Every structure is written in structure tokens, then in C-alpha cells.
Amino acid sequence: MHKNFWIVIVNYRTADLVVDCLQSLETQREVLGGGKVVVVDNDSGDGSVGRIAEAITAHGWSAWAEVVAAPRNGGFSYGNNVGIRLALSADPAAAWIMLLNPDTVVRSGALGALREFMATHPGVGIAGSLLENPDGSVDCSAHRIPSALGELEGSARFGPLSRLLREHRVSDAPGSEAHPCDWVSGAALVMRREVLVQAGLMDEGYFLYFEEVDFCCRAKEAGWEVWYVPEARVMHLEGASTGIRKAAKRRAHYWYDSRRRFFVRHHGVAGLILADLLWALGRLSFLARRALRLGGKPGADPKWFMVDLLWGDLRAIMSGRVFALRGQAVEFPFL
């Protein structure tokens, strides 16, 4: 049976970025086979649906692209699930589904490289692209699972400790060859249909952030491999759609909610507490070194980072809300 390639793009008030992304896909549309690009608008309320629909019609993209209006803004997982359900219900031959951020430009040959890799590596359930920054540098998009020791390494920012805990560092320097990893960035990843059948859809309990980490972990638990494929190059204007890299801003509460959800679901409540304790230890050592002028270069930290992270988790534990996160199931709706 012929196999089709689908792409899901979730939009929230970034219509111009979506059009640029679609433009980058136009010359690669043959890779889709009988698949399509589905743009899911998460109830933007700013005319995005009409603007994207007009662009699709004006550029003659209607044969391979469409925009769908979701009834509410349920977050990144929710929007992706809307598109995934549409692809799977509309096309029995939908073999691969790619999640693509609206703030991306897909380089020539990237879709073909991903499709070829998935076709020739049947044990791989999820593959992620190489992500370029606008200045041409390469960002890390292949990662290790977040852990308590990884939280210590990341918050301490201390060279000797980082070398000691290298195997627990979440994000290393980008590799130049394809290799397996724990999870890949949700900005540009492709999944196999069978992964969805076995591991379920994306967990809509994550509004934004950590959803792809959770999804990759569940795929691996189901026996699938996760790989990084640098031959598939995608430029990512990271933060253009979410503002995550604006250090001066106070980080949105849902980032902390998502981090908490991930640690509880994959490490338990005790794992969350241990991660917070080690994060705080590393953070305090970093601040002490800075105060004593013994190193500790400032990073792109949001305002009130330490307070929001630790106090938010403490409140969730004291209220009992954190214990409700442990057993929530993620169902696949087509079984």
C-alpha cells in the first residue's frame, strides 16, 4: 500500500509565520504523496484562519494544504491532536505524521530526508530534524531525559560538575551524524502511525512545553527508538511564537506546570522533590560564586525563576494537586 506523509502545524496568532513556513514546503510537496499539511488554528481570535486560508488560495496550495479552526486554545498538544486525528481518520495510508512549528522554515530536501530515514529504519518511531538558528548556527535538538542529576548540572553551571555529570546533561552540543537519543525537539519531528496506536496521542495535560519529551518517553517505553537526523535541516525562529527566549520576561506559569507534570509522571512525586532540591542546591552554588566573583556567568533566566519554580511546586505538593498527576491515562481514540 502506498504510504502518505502528513504535516500538522499549530497556529496561535502567528499567521504570517505560518505562510512563510508553507512557502518553504511548496517545493517539497511531492514528498507528501497523498498526504496534506494541516494548519490547526487554536482559536487565535485575530483573523488568522481567514488570512491563512486566503494565502493558501492565492498561492494555489489548496491541493496539499488546509487550515482548520479549533474551537478553543487547548495548548500545543491539543492542537496537534486535532490535526493528528484529522489525518488518521481521513487517510488510512497516513504512515507518518510530522509536527512542525509555525516559526520554522524547512530547508530543501528536509522532508525527503525524514521520509527516507523512516522508511529505511523500521524500528524508529520518532525522528527529529537538525534545527538551525537564523544566524546559521545549529541548536541542540537531540536530548537526554530530564532527571534530578540533570537539574543539578543545569542549574549549577559549573564546568567541573558538568564534566562529572555529562551523562545526565539534558542538552549536549549538536551531533553531525544521525544517532539515537531520548527525545527530540517538537519544533520539527516526525512520528510513525504505529507509535500513536501503541503509545497514544500527545498528552493534553501539557499546555505548552515538555509535551514532546513526554511523548518520546512513552514511545520508547512502547519499544520504539527515537533518533536525530541532521540531514533534515529546519530553521527555527525559537521563541517567535512563544516568547520563551525573552529573558526579561517572567516565564508563564504553564512552563512550571508542564515541568512538574513531567517529573511526577516519569519520576514520581519523590523524583520531583529530589529534582527541586538538587536544582536549588545548584542554583544557590551558582549565585554564591557570582556573589564572590568566582565565576558563574549570568544566563538567560526569566524573572523570579527560582521563586516561581520552587514555590509553585511546594504549593502543588502541599495542596495535594501534585498527587493527581501520577495516574492520568492518555487514550488513543481510534481503537
What are its keywords?
335 residues, alpha/beta, Spore Coat Polysaccharide Biosynthesis Protein SpsA, Chain A, 2 domains, 10-stranded mixed β-sheet, two-stranded antiparallel sheet, 10 helices, 12 strands, 40% helix
Please describe what this structure looks like.
This protein has two domains: 4-144 and 181-236, Alpha-Beta Complex (Spore Coat Polysaccharide Biosynthesis Protein SpsA, Chain A); 253-319, no CATH class. Helix 1 (15-25) runs parallel beside helix 2, helix 7 (193-199) packs across helix 8 (211-221) and helix 9 crosses helix 10 (305-319). Strand 6 and strand 7 (138-139) form a beta hairpin. The chain has helices spanning 15-25, 48-58, 76-90, 110-120, 148-156, 159-164, 193-199, 211-221, 253-291, 305-319, and strands spanning 4-11, 37-41, 65-69, 94-100, 104-106, 124-132, 138-139, 142-143, 179-180, 183-184, 188-192, 225-236. 40% of the residues lie in helices and 19% in strands. It is built from ten helices and twelve strands. The longest helix is centred in the C-terminal third of the chain and has 39 residues, at 253-291. It has 335 residues and is an alpha/beta fold. The strands form two sheets. Strands 1, 2, 3, 4, 5, 6, 7, 9, 11 and 12 form a ten-stranded mixed sheet that branches. Strands 8-10 form a two-stranded antiparallel ribbon.
